[in-house]
Amino acid sequence: MTTQTDALVAAADAVRAAHLAALRPLAEVAGRTVAAPPTVEDALTAALHLIAAKPALDHTITGLLRELINAGIAPTKLARLLSIRSSTLTDRLAASAPTAVPVPELHFGMFRRKDRLSVRASRESLIGAARGLGRTYASALRPISTVSQGGVPEAAVVDEALEAVLHLHGSRAALDAAMDPVLAALVLGGVRRMSLAEGLGVHATTLQRRLAGQPLAHARHVDLVDDGAGKWSVARAEVGRYAPAEELDPALVEAAVAEAITAVTENGPSVRVREDSATVPQSGAGF
């Protein structure tokens, strides 16, 4: 292979390796079983590890973009394919490597007390959520992995590397959405929403919108349904403010209405008399 091809393969391998390292703690969560589920604390640490690695992951992707430009892809064309401004791509290419961001240390203030059933449902749900996240990342990284393994014919490496980076770039929304079930299970397990928002680097209302479609993030312990095999669903229990309103006896309602009509009929004249007799005192004539 030529030096150019080697550089593209090495850049693709750097992207793959960086993502695998960032996902490793969550992969360990996904590898647990219902008999020995992960703790909420371990899962939170794993999620924060992936979130903290985002700048480094973006930097490795930028390295692949740089090699594509060196291979002959025009920056303007690359920016257009990525749906970003040329100036944005220029700034990204000129940016220096980000400093390592330490994973935030867990502290007591990040959690609130939760009942045992909610914690159990959270721990078991985290397994499936982490597995779903892993599958989404695997799908997004599959073309990159193909290039990194050097199995692409040399004449097609540039095109395949370009398609791979565009595929990964286009998967950003899916990757973010795949994290939402993990966040929802963490909230169910007692992690405060504000702590997650700080870890994600987003406003609390942004996190609220992301969790709006996640039933586990809003479930009470009475709403949780154990579907078996570590899967939990939510069925709103009719207790508290969700309790159905008491239905009134139609006969009693009819009797109350009739009584009210009779009272108005009987008291109507006296009301008018009082109104007619009510006068406004007038001052004497001054002249």
Architecture overview:
With 287 residues, the chain is mainly alpha-helical. It has one domain. It contains eleven helices and two strands; from the N terminus they run H-H-H-H-H-H-H-H-H-H-E-E-H. It has a two-stranded antiparallel sheet. Strand 1 and strand 2 (231-234) form a beta hairpin. It comes from [Mycobacterium] wendilense.
Please describe the structure with a list of short key phrases separated by commas or semicolons:
2 strands, 287 residues, 64% helix, DUF222 domain-containing protein, mainly alpha
Distance between the termini: 119 Å
Tally of strands: 2
The total domain count is 1
Mean pLDDT: 88
> How much helicity do the residues have?
55-70%
Radius of gyration: 32 Å
Computed structural class: mainly alpha
Task: Write the topology of this structure.
Elements: H1 3-30, H2 40-52, H3 54-70, H4 75-82, H5 86-94, H6 116-148, H7 157-170, H8 172-188, H9 193-200, H10 204-211, E1 224-228, E2 231-234, H11 250-277
Antiparallel strand pairs: 1-2
Helix pairs in contact: 1-2, 1-3, 1-6, 2-8, 3-7, 4-5, 6-7, 6-8, 9-10
Summarize the structure.
The chain has 287 residues and is mostly helical.
